[in-house]
Specification:
Largest sheet: 7 strands, mixed
Helix content: 25-40%
Strand content: 25-35%
CATH superfamily: P-loop containing nucleotide triphosphate hydrolases
Shape: globular
Strand order of the largest sheet: 1-7-6-2-5-4-3
Oligomer: single chain
Order of helices and strands: EHEHEEHEEEH
Structural class: alpha/beta
Length: 159
């Protein structure tokens, strides 16, 4: 069984704070899948993560561009939103494998739309609205993901 965790996030600010907490335990080179319905908070979490890494500009969902890339100091983050993907092969045409350089962080919203063309996750995050708040669940999908889940658990009181 893979390592996992979950929490309740009261609002958008708490979702951004979780993103910042996640940024603190990522080393770079990870692939993170973000799952959840429209409006569940996937981009909000990404915004918190990017701001924690030092990005001061706007963070919007790359729904129409499919990917937005950010330079956060020496770190690179590629934020994918595959919601409008018509065919998984579009992801290959976009050159998704070129983003997998072992150093850049890939955040992928709607990974299921890319089917087998979506790079495999180290960490899967699921967000759902629940009674006016958000429920977030995360699980490891690789040894690297196991280390992330362990780091999240070890620093839970500091989130």
């Amino acid at each position: 069984m893979r390592a996992r965790g979950e929490a309740e996030l009261a609002d958008a600010a708490a979702t951004e704070a979780f993103g910042a907490h996640l940024a603190a335990v990522l080393a770079g080179g990870e692939v993170v899948h973000l799952r959840g319905a429209l409006g569940a908070g996937k981009t909000t979490l990404c915004r918190g993560l990017l701001r924690a890494l030092g990005h001061a500009g706007a963070v919007k969902s790359p729904t129409y561009t499919l990917v937005e890339s950010y330079a956060c100091g020496a770190r690179r983050v590629h934020h994918f939103d595959l919601y409008r993907l018509r065919d998984p092969l579009e992801l290959e045409d976009l050159g998704v494998r070129d983003y997998l350089d072992g150093e850049a962080l890939l955040l992928i919203e709607w990974p299921e739309r890319g089917d087998a063309c979506t790079p495999p996750a180290d960490l899967v995050i699921e967000l759902a609205e629940q009674a006016g708040a958000r429920r977030i669940r995360w699980s490891a999908s690789s040894p690297r993901g196991e280390a992330i889940v362990a780091a999240l658990a070890a620093t839970a009181g500091r989130a």
